[in-house]
Write a structure and sequence with these properties.
alpha+beta, 22 helices
């Protein structure tokens, strides 16, 4: 207890509370009713209401006192000042959050006085609220993402795993907690995975995704893509966050495609003639005096008799005799200057170290600022003319059927296109020359193709899949490879584009995606796809009383049908039932095969149970 004190004394004590704490200092006498005896003038800067108005308005004091539990201020454990977070109304009607440091003084006549200092912490409150919201959002995203997320402690044990692990691997989240994930990795992938993830534990860099095989339910291994990085948690600890994504179907499809491509490439390599890409060497007045080797294949190295490095470091003149070299350079210069493809049969040619003259069939085509040259040694043609002619025709046909289309585009107009455009798309080279390549691209793919074109102009190589129009007004899927082409002077002024038909690959990928989503027997959604879509539909916000209904259907005595008539009849029955159920519902509704003879129907936007029962009766009658 203290004796009655003057307001000035109480104000001085309140200022003593503030120190560096308070933006505002106040004294509130609580008897007979709450009223401000003093408020520092800084209150007006915070809330727009003057100190005099606070002193003269008892409602403001009552509002402050009503928000404070005065019993806590007199508790023995809180004899000192108590810190409180309270709102304070502004003149505009909004609330400013203030951190108060309060003390309750009881005088001899039992009159109580509240002393306080407060500072504005509105921004801190807003940041804390945003952080809390963000943390909740991130956790919600992690728990509902299709990818699996794991938190791994420094000792290698799993600390947390997202619920999606069940759908991905068949393992429950609880079964992985407290164990090392390495046990689930294929033995052949384990050493590399442990080494890379161990490196991630001592680095703040994001781990580049790696492919590895993971043990899933059913004692089998499936391919997953794994990535991760170290993160600092709010509790001060560090965890390795690892993300897993199922890529089993993708890896298998890629392996199948790579095997097909490897077989095709091996066949072509066994048939390829020598090939070189030549870049002209010019003198001071711009005349071509030689050609440098820019690209060569193995057959060319074998035929000329030097290794790849030596051939790339040489010119036509250095590997030819002087007489043959000058004639050959002059002939090739004509192709570069005038653009007419070169076709020579039985062309005589002598290398720099040859004692005799060989004869070759030559093919040369200008490719932008370079020359594409291939040849075949036909010195022994007269010994087996008929055999060689038949072989040549077969090889020529195979080359033409498998040749990619090549074109040069300086801007958007086609400057040059290879003759294979006729076999591939039905066009002649004249149909394309000087035309915008966009004229032949499917309208839906033009924006994507334009983006790739801008990337090429920035100096980047691009690979895109687009649909291109044939002369018959049909569209083929093609895989286009585009790269910037730089002239010998170092100026980039065009793009070199090649493309090949990939209709079969696109169709295979579409079919693969369809099989991943649909039941192969009935064509309905498979179980995983049904659950994924059901989860998405269920998470959507519903208005106007719209509800979601789930119908579970099965076929009575279905086993008896299989036993009596065989599985082929049972399969036919399932397909028929699936078609009839699908015909009974709306396009927006979901129908999926749960397993066996069990079919699930999800009705979206129904208003009541009666409407759902009506659809169920319709299905029952149709089946």
């Amino acid at each position: 207890m203290t004796t009655a004190r003057s307001t000035e004394s109480l104000v001085a004590e309140a200022h003593g509370l503030s120190g560096e704490w308070g933006d505002v200092v106040y004294v509130v006498r609580l008897s007979p009713s709450p009223a401000f005896a003093y408020v520092s003038t800084s209150i007006e800067d915070l809330v727009g209401v003057s100190a005099d108005s606070h002193v003269s308005d008892p409602d403001l004091a009552s509002r402050l006192v009503g928000a404070i539990d005065l019993g806590d201020l007199t508790h023995p454990a809180t004899d000192g000042p108590q810190s409180l977070l309270l709102p304070w109304p502004t003149k505009q009607g909004r609330l400013v959050w203030l951190r108060h440091l309060c003390r309750l003084v009881v005088e001899d006549d039992d009159a109580r006085v509240l002393l306080g200092a407060a500072r504005d912490v509105s921004e801190e409150v807003a940041r804390d609220a945003a952080l809390t919201s963000a943390l909740g959002t991130y956790r919600l995203l992690a728990e509902n993402a299709s990818d699996v997320l794991l938190l791994i402690r420094a000792d290698g044990l799993v600390d947390w795993v997202s619920p999606s692990v069940l759908a991905l691997t068949g393992w429950g989240a609880s079964s992985l907690l407290g164990r090392q994930p390495w046990d689930l990795i294929h033995p052949e992938d384990r050493e590399a995975a442990v080494a890379i993830l161990a490196e991630a534990t001592v680095s703040d860099e994001t781990l580049a995704p790696i492919l590895l095989r993971l043990l899933v339910a059913g004692d089998r291994y499936a391919w997953v893509s794994a990535g991760g990085r170290q993160v600092d948690l709010t509790d001060g600890g560090r965890r390795l966050v690892v993300s897993l994504r199922m890529v089993d179907d993708l890896v298998q499809a890629r392996e199948a495609a790579e095997n097909d491509r490897a077989r095709l490439q091996g066949s072509l390599d066994s048939l390829l003639d020598p090939y070189v890409l030549l870049v002209p060497v010019r003198n001071q007045v711009g005349a071509i005096v030689d050609f440098a080797h820019a690209e060569v294949n193995d057959a060319a190295c074998v035929d000329i008799g030097v290794n790849r490095e030596e051939l790339l470091d040489s010119t036509v003149m250095t590997v030819s005799s002087p007489e043959s070299g000058r004639a050959f350079v002059s002939m090739l210069a004509q192709v570069m200057d005038y653009g007419e493809p070169l076709r020579r049969e039985d062309q005589p040619y002598r290398t720099s170290d040859a004692m005799s003259t060989s004869r070759f069939d030559l093919r040369a085509v200008r490719a932008g600022g370079a020359l594409s040259l291939t040849w075949r040694d036909v010195s022994e043609r007269h010994k087996a003319h008929e055999v060689l002619t038949a072989t040549k025709n077969r090889f020529q046909q195979m080359a033409e059927e498998s040749s990619d289309v090549v074109m040069t585009i300086p801007g958007r107009e086609v400057l040059w296109v290879s003759p294979s455009i006729g076999d591939t798309m039905g066009w002649t080279t004249e149909d394309w020359m000087g035309r915008h390549v966009d004229d032949y691209v499917h309208p839906d793919d033009r924006a994507w193709f334009a983006q790739a074109g801008m990337a090429v102009r920035r100096g980047e190589d691009q690979v895109v899949r687009i649909r291109m129009r044939t002369r018959a007004e049909a569209y083929h899927w093609v895989e286009a490879h585009a790269r910037p082409y730089t002239e010998n002077a170092g100026q980039q002024d065009r793009a070199l584009v090649s493309f090949r038909l990939v209709d079969s690959e696109v169709a295979a990928e579409v079919e693969l995606e369809r099989r991943a989503r649909n039941d192969e027997l009935t064509g309905l959604l498979n179980r995983k796809e049904l659950f994924d879509r059901l989860e998405r539909v269920n998470s959507e916000r519903r208005v106007g009383g719209n509800c979601l209904a789930v119908l579970f259907c099965d076929i009575d005595d279905f086993k008896a049908v299989n036993d009596r008539s065989g599985h082929a009849s049972g399969d036919a029955l399932l397909r028929t039932v699936a078609e009839r159920i699908r015909a009974c519902v709306r396009r927006a509704d979901l129908v999926g095969r749960f397993g066996g003879d069990e079919i699930v129907v999800v009705l979206d936007s129904v208003h009541d149970v009666d409407e759902s029962v009506e659809v169920a009766d319709k299905i029952r009658q149709a089946v």
